[in-house]
Automatic annotation (TrEMBL):
Signal peptide bounds: none
Descriptive protein name: Cytochrome P450
Family: Belongs to the cytochrome P450 family.
Presence of the UniProt keyword Nucleotide-binding in the record: no
Amino acid sequence: MAHEPVSRCPVLDVSGRSLHADAAALRSEAPAVRVLLPGGVTAWAVTRYDVIRALTSDPRVSRDFARHWPGRSEVPDGWPLAAVTFQQNFLNTYGAEHRMLRGLVAPSFSPRRVSAMRPGIEAVAERLTNAWAALGPGEATDLRATYALPLTMTVICELFGVPEHLRGPLGAAIDRAADTAASPEQALAVHAEIDARLDELVSHKRAHPGADLTSDLLMNPAEDGSVFTEETLKGTLFLMIGAGYETTVHLITSAAHALLTGPDVVTRIRKGELRWADVVEETLRLQGPIMYLPLRYAVEDIDLGEGVLVRQGDAIAVAFAAAGRDPDRHPKGPDDFDPSRADKTHLAFGHGPHFCLGAHLARLEAEVALRTLFTRLPRLALASPERTPDRLPSFILNGLTGLPVVPVPAA
C-alpha cells in the first residue's frame, strides 16, 4: 500500500476531548491508519485489540528510536512528544539491551514485593480520607488533586527516595510532559524543567543514599560491568516515577467517577456480589490511563492485511486504551461500564516484552484507594453531577483534569 499523502492523513486530536470516538473511527477504517502527529510527524495509528497484541509482541517492532527510526531527524525543535519519545531508558531500547536494563528494575516490582507494600498504601489512604472526613457538611474537594495524586505520588516517591521538597516540582513537570497541545516553547521549557529536577534528584541521592530504588540504580552495575550513563539513569527515573504515579492517578479518578455516576455498583460490592478488583479491571478496560504511547518503529516491512503495509522505519502509535473497547473483542456494550461482565480483557498495561512493570502496584493502589474511599466515606457524592468533567489536553494520557466531590454531603 502506498503511503497516504500527508494532506490526507487524519490529525490526532491534541486536546484529548474525543479520544475514544476518534479511535473507533480509525478502528473501523483499517488495521492501521496513517495519522498526523504534532509537528507534521506521521505515524501508523493502531486501535484494534488483535493488531495491538500482535505488534507489541512482534520482534519486527522496536522502541529504539536511535536504531530504528530514520524519521527522527525530521522532528522539529520543541516537539511536544519529545520528552516521552526520546528519553533514554529501558522502554526505548530493543532486544538484549532492553532485557538487560529492564532486569535491573524488574525485581523491585515483583508480586511478592508489591504485596509487602499494602500496609503502607493503606496507611496513606486512611490518612487522606481522615482529612476528608474532617471537612464540613457540603464542602467540596478535588478527588484527583487531594486523594488520587497524593496517594500515588507518596507511594512511588517513597519507593524511589524522592525527598519531599522535590515531589511537587518533579510531579508538575512530568504532568506537563504529557500535554500534546503544548507549543514548541512550552515543550522546550518542560524538557529543561524535567532535566533540572532529575539532576537535583540524582545529586541528592548521591549525597544522601538510602534504602530506595534510586540509590540502588546509582550503585547497581549492569551485567557487562558498566553502570547507567547519566542520561539513561535520568531517563529511567523519569519513566518509573512518571509511570508509577501518573497512570494510577487516572485509573483511580476514572474508577471513582464511574462509581459515583452508577451507585448501584457500590451497593453490589457491599452485598458481596462484586469485588473491588472487578471495578479496577473494568476501568482498565473502559478507560485505560494510556491512549497513544509514542512511539514504536518497524524494523522491517510488516503486512497487516487489508492492503496495509507498514514499511521499514515507519513510526507506529499504539492506542492501548482503545483495545478494551474493540467490539470484535467485546461485542456486548463495549462502551458501557459493567464490572459484572465476565470478560474484562484489556491491554491497558501493554503486552509482550514491554508489559508494564508496575501493573501489580497500580492494581493494588487502585483497589486499596477505592475500598478505603467508599468504606470510609459512604455518602461520597459528585459536587456537580450535572457537569461532565474536563479531560486532559493529551492523546498520551486518558483521564480527567479533576473530579470535584463532596465527602460529607449536607443533610
